[in-house]
User: Fold this.
Amino acid sequence: MTSSTLARTFEALSDERRCRVVELLGTAPRSAGELAQQTGLSASAMSRHLRVLLELELITDSRHPDDARVRMFSLRPERLADCRSWLDQVQAHWQQNLAAFKQHVEKSTPSKGKPDRRTSQGGRAS
Assistant:
């Protein structure tokens, strides 16, 4: 996933209604009508949100087996896994940086009961 696609994905998911759609589709495929009803959105508003999610390939659509007029929407979990992978990389980076910082602080902080060599000359740093 490119950084541009990743940014657009997070931007799309920053909308609470789209997040709710993703949550609902994470449990089972649904029609646009079901999603609109469960989120309290109008059909036209739901259509706009679904279009954004389809363009980002976070969801797919297919025809209902019993009624070809009904489109069923499903989550594409692998696209969310791409986001998760990026978040895992960022988290690992920060964990390494924080661990290095902690180690630096622990090395530069005097232990209890031992005088700090930097201030042992009359309270002034040497």
